[in-house]
Design brief:
Blueprint lengths: L5 H4 L9 E3 L9 E6 L9 H16 L4 E6 L4 H13 L2 E7 L11 H8 L3 E5 L1 H5 L4 H11 L3 E3 L6 H7 L12 E6 L3 H9 L5 E6 L6 H8 L5 E3 L13 H14 L8 H13 L8 E6 L5 H11 L10
Parallel strand pairs: 2-10, 3-4, 3-6, 4-5, 7-8, 7-10, 8-9
Antiparallel strand pairs: 1-2
The structure holds pyridoxal-5'-phosphate.
């Protein structure tokens, strides 16, 4: 499924991403198109490529040899950084939340992949992980690992948002709604900054809590956006059979794979809102496929352990 070679796309200012209109009959003459950012790369996919691009260039400009970042057990960000670092000639260190995971690398496809990409995994307790922004914690890491370029958790910083401002292009001006999954809020912030005044940006958080509005407000000036908190399915990484069925059915209908942590919940939410007449007639909706498909493997391990139906997508 590799469409772009990272080596080639990284220095480019623009890459062209497929916009695919869904051939599904929606009520009220509503049209839905999905921007296939997942096709940028199988691992450094979607928004993770966008968020890393200028950070990798900056790390090179600063002559850094090592990238250090943070993430949870099934983090798309950890997978993306490990691969991008190896591909771009950096050493990489992943500070992983949960010291019990040290013994479970073999049963965790994400951590296994990161390790195979040469990422050095440093497991810390959940309590220590909470301190990761503190200067004293970063100092300690510097003593331990030497000099590094720090990529924040989820990759969100000013340079990441600059990269996400390149997701929307001129041809997307025909859409009046733009919908995207939200984790830390970096991706949607870039989208909001580059959205046009006649467009409304809707964010679908993959986690519980009302704090994301305030996070996003730090990075954006425009007011034409809204966060919809009704489709987190119980919280970050939580799924149920309704969501898994939806992802499998959507794939059967469209051949478009969705991930269970982010894009599955967002697309479920948009289709549910269409059915509830949230959108005016003739709305032209653009969904941003932010990638994250590597998360399917880890989710299926968890689902199998609980003897629940799995995601039957071959990515
Ligand atoms: C990380 C991720 C997000 C969340 O992006 P933020 O910038 O943290 O809001 C959304 N979708 C996918 C597939 C992701 O991997």
């Amino acid at each position: 499924m590799v469409i772009f070679n990272l080596q080639e796309v990284l220095p480019l200012q623009k890459i062209i991403v497929l916009n695919q209109e869904l051939k599904i009959q929606f009520p009220n003459a509503i049209a839905v198109t999905i921007k296939r950012e997942d096709l940028i790369h199988p691992v450094v996919s979607g928004n993770k490529f966008r968020k890393l691009k200028y950070n990798l260039l900056q790390a090179k400009a600063e002559n850094k040899k090592t990238l250090l970042t943070f993430g949870g057990a099934f983090s798309n960000h950890i997978a993306a950084v490990s691969y991008a670092a190896q591909n771009q000639g950096f050493r990489s260190i992943g500070v992983i939340r949960g010291d019990e995971l040290r013994e479970k690398i073999e049963s965790n496809p994400t951590l296994q992949f990161a390790q195979e990409c040469g990422m050095q995994l440093e497991f810390v307790s959940r309590e220590d992980y909470r301190l990761k922004q503190e200067p004293s914690f970063v100092d300690k890491l510097q003593q331990q690992f030497g000099d590094f370029y720090l990529v924040p958790e989820g990759g969100t910083n000013e340079l990441a948002i600059k990269g996400c401002q390149e997701i929307l292009t001129q041809e997307d001006s025909v859409f009046n709604y733009i919908c995207c999954a939200v984790g830390t809020g970096g991706t949607i912030s870039g989208i909001i900054n580059s959205a046009l005044p006649h467009q409304k940006v809707l964010g679908f958080p993959a986690l519980k809590g009302d704090f994301l509005q305030d996070e996003i407000r730090i990075f954006v000036q425009n007011e034409n956006w809204e966060v919809i908190n009704d489709y987190h399915f119980g919280g970050y990484g939580k799924v149920n059979e309704v969501l898994i069925d939806f992802i499998n059915q959507f794939y059967a209908d469209t051949k478009i794979p969705l991930d269970p942590v982010y894009t599955g919940k967002m697309v479920f939410g948009v289709i549910d809102l269409i059915q509830k007449n949230y959108f005016p007639a003739h709305s032209n909706i653009l969904l941003i496929h932010t990638g994250g498909l590597q998360g399917i493997y880890g989710m299926n391990v968890k689902l199998k352990n609980k003897q629940l139906p799995i995601i039957t997508i071959d990515v």
